[in-house]
Amino acid sequence: MPTPPSDILHGHQRTIPLLQDAILGSRSMPTWIFGGPLGVGKFTAARLLAGMLLDPETRPDDVERFSPRTDTESGTLFAAGTHPDLHVVCKEQALESPIQKIRDQKQRTIPVAVLRQQIIGGVVDGHTFDAPAYIKPHRRWGKVFIIDEAELISDIGQNLLLKTLEEPPPRTWFILVTTRPDRLLQTIHSRCQPAQFNPLDREAMSAWKEGAAVEASREELDWAVEFSEGSPGLVVAAIDEGLHGWHRTFEDMIDAYAAGRFPAEMATEMERFIEESAVAAEKADRLTSKQAAGVRATKLLINLLSSLMRTRMHAAIEAGDPVAETWTEAIEVLAGSESRIESNVNRKLALAGLGSALADLLAPVES
């Protein structure tokens, strides 16, 4: 389950007014899609919105500050992470399913069984689940359901959610948090109000950096902020994974490709990074599967390689060098490899194929 964030939202000055209207306005839709890149504050915003919606004592000045109260009974429960009417739904809940085959899955999706157990109710493999969405709030005020990584719900699961999203019970809100809104069905989109979260600008990132509670040297933090391109979540992930120490290794390999050499060890080093990260994550959190942690590490590594390539692409553009187009194609190759790995293609084979594809693409053209 996602770790509760700091509950401080930086930036997003164009999006916050929409959310403030959701609290103050009587005509606001009770179903939302929070879309945007990884780590820019979508989940934090969803929690803050939930905290205010669930507190009958929320005041206009709380909404103006976009911060739940901490001096009320509801606010105290929310701050402690124990509010009974805040429901966070995520792929990790598969490990808590009473159904063995659901527990054995690799956390690449949010199974239908999890949706039935956590939201809509129903029968799965002889197990009958009540529908939390239709049960009266424990505190008799309202309920909020946050679905994290909503893009991991299959089409079947999304279709099962449709009626609940179309006709939610009174004072029940749903927030679908996703980095890939395009993977949600159009029928889901039609029942939800969108809220777009973009990367933070330099001013907002500076404010976040000033209060960030991260253990890193100044050099490492500065590098991670630059690498993140406006994503506090990526800064934290980069520091947690020691990415600053890895980036020179992969930078040398990218330079080798650009010079016409094939760094044969690249696929092996990529696999080593992913494997070490996945093993450490599984040991640190019993609700994290090694497979899911591997997918996360793969995304982080692809981000690093893309960042290195974008730096070279921008330098080529400024120099008027036509190789800029080749770097653009290389970034697209990276994205394709990530998609194949996400779709359960053997990771080692995909990484080996990536190395060969980059070698073919970036090899200097003989005159």
Radius of gyration: 22 Å
- What is the highest CATH level, the class of the largest domain? Alpha Beta
- Topology-level CATH name of the largest domain: Rossmann fold
Number of strands: 7
DSSP helical segment count? 16
Along the chain, the helix and strand elements come as HEHHHEHHEEEHEHEHHHHHHHH
Number of self-contained structural domains? 2
Approximate shape: globular
Instruction: State the low-pLDDT regions, or none.
Output: 1-5
CATH architecture of the largest domain: 3-Layer(aba) Sandwich
Fraction of residues in helix: 40-55%
Distance between the termini: 55 Å
Care to describe what's here?
- The radius of gyration is 22 Å and the shape is globular.
- Helices cover 53% and strands 8% of the residues.
- Residues 1-5 have low confidence and may be disordered.
- The longest helix is centred in the last third of the chain and has 30 residues, at 290-319.
- Helix 10 (218-228) crosses helix 11 (232-240).
- It has two domains: 16-196, P-loop containing nucleotide triphosphate hydrolases (Rossmann fold), CATH 3.40.50; 241-362, no CATH class.
- The strands form two sheets. The chain has a five-stranded parallel sheet, with helices on both faces. Strands 3-4 form a two-stranded antiparallel ribbon.
- The chain is of the alpha/beta class.
